[in-house]
Amino acid sequence: MMGASSVPLLDDRNSAESKLRQGITTLSAGEGHSMAPQNERTSSRGERAGKPRWRTFAEYFQLLESHGMAMNAIHNVGAAQVRLAVIGDKDQAPTPAQMAEMNRLVAQAMEDGAVGLSTALIYPPGTYAKTEELVEMAKVVGRYGGVYMSHMRNESSQVLDAIRETIHIGEAAGIPSHVFHLKAAGEENWPLIKDAIELIRKSRERGLDVTADIYPYIRNGIGLGSFLHPRHYADGTPVFLKTLSDPAVRARLRSEVETTSDWENWYRHVGKDWGNVLVASVGPPLSQSYEGKSIAEIAKMRGQDDWTAFFDLAQTGVVNVNPKSMDEEQKAPGAARRMGERMHGFGAAEHPHRH
Ligand SMILES: [Zn+2]
User: Fold this and answer.
1) How far is the CA of 178 from the centre of ligand 1 (A)?
2) What is the Å distance from ligand 1's center to 179 Cα?
3) Which domains are delineated in the chain?
4) Across the chain, which distance is largest between two alpha carbons, in Å?
5) pTM, whole model, 2 decimals?
6) Tens of pLDDT along 184-222?
């Protein structure tokens, strides 16, 4: 459901092969960002700075079709994309004029063939949007029979509030709402998955069309540096990583990781066990023999204690890890069954969209 981008299909139609070989024939694209709308503001970000290759979904779909599509694609218009196009990436509320322009862009996207509004409220600049701003845009989508899909504001200790917000947005706009990869990340939060499913089941009983999809795995993927509080990176990653040579800095950071929880503390999420943090990939100068091993195992290989190994590896800035942040219960088919009825599919016969 959260296929993010269809631009690879545009740039290289053979890129569809990886999905087709898994039996996936329809890509659902659009999250916080989406393929359109584009303008000078949005295209000044990323590698294709300057003049956008397209501005509207109509132009984008024409490009896609002219290249020949190897699989089906449906597109959401991303709330953060619309925000970027009108406000930029600043943390500020839209003025009434800006809100009207945002709604106009959403309406145009729907006229062009988008299937709904999608969000990624866990990342900036999507996170700057207040609930009411999203309700406004969801109402526009509702006029076209669209849906609301969300990478929610929180997926750990505040996950229940995040689900309530998602349901509220759909209900206020009178449209179906969908939770992207429902989970309760972090060992302390695993029990919340039952309440989360219950919340969705109850809203369905009230007659609301609320659905969710789940991860097919129990580990997420992040850089090892994410195990330290993000605020330390405010002056840039290289500046911060240099300070990790100082034993006093390491001691302070370790204490912060071990004793605080008012942030996405992955060490707590894995049950304070470096054995639960698998190294997925390393870059030079580290040995590839570390890949597939836990931080605890690597510490043994290096003859170090876990924390010294962690800091040494984190300092290189080239280590990606898969923390065991979820449990089997969350991906079991039973979890989906408990939600109630069979999930319904979007973009099916009742909503024939262009892609
Ligand atoms: Zn997520």
Assistant:
1) 13
2) 10
3) 7-216+331-346 (3.20.20.140), 222-323 (no CATH)
4) 63
5) 0.82
6) 999 899 999 999 999 999 999 999 999 999 888 899 889
